[in-house]
Design a protein that fits this description.
single chain; 182 residues; mainly alpha; 6 helices
Length: 182
């Protein structure tokens, strides 16, 4: 009888140990699943942000491209045409940076990694730099066409760049300081 009790106690301990291991494994899997779900949600948000931004940049790219075929474009000074072309190139870079995260997410078949989410977030924010430069260069070209003043065109381009940098970089940075939990 004592042997049976000892054997039952040993089996109970073994079951308890196995149960703890199974419980720990299950908890680990749930935590991992939760992390994957968080990454998936983060990537879906990033892709949605890109979807919202893309049409505006595409329209901007179209207008920039059409300008080249305008008769007045050929009459522009070489430096003004060069700045417009450089601005067009900046918008192309912004589009490429903006489109990379959704393409990468699609390529991974909806199984994002922490690194992918971090890089995607940097790409979305980073595309604003060439976009701001491209818009500023276009502002230079437009003001030069209207005023024929290089100084005024440079001032307008610089003001545009400062305004975009302030709205796209400084405002969000300030907001992050006011809401540290987010």
């Amino acid at each position: 009888m004592l042997n049976r009790a000892r054997h039952a106690a040993e089996r109970f301990q073994l079951c308890a140990i196995e149960g703890a291991i199974v419980f720990a494994y299950r908890a680990s899997m749930e935590k991992q699943k939760t992390e994957l779900e968080k990454l998936d949600e983060e990537m879906r948000n990033i892709v949605e942000e890109a979807r919202v931004i893309v049409p505006g940049i595409q329209a901007r790219f179209g207008f920039q491209t059409i300008a080249v075929f305008n008769d007045r474009f050929a009459d522009l000074e070489t430096f003004a045409r060069a700045r417009h072309t450089l601005g067009l190139g900046m918008v192309v870079i912004a589009i490429a940076m903006l489109m990379t995260p959704p393409i990468d997410y699609r390529a991974c078949a909806g199984h994002p990694s922490r690194r992918m989410a971090r890089v995607a977030s940097l790409m979305i924010r980073g595309c604003l730099v060439p976009l701001a430069l491209g818009l500023s260069l276009d502002m230079f070209t437009v003001l030069f066409v209207v005023s024929k003043s290089v100084v005024l065109s440079i001032c307008a381009a610089a003001a545009t760049l400062l305004q975009l940098a302030g709205l796209w970089c400084a405002v969000p940075a300030t907001e992050g300081k006011h809401n540290p939990g987010q």
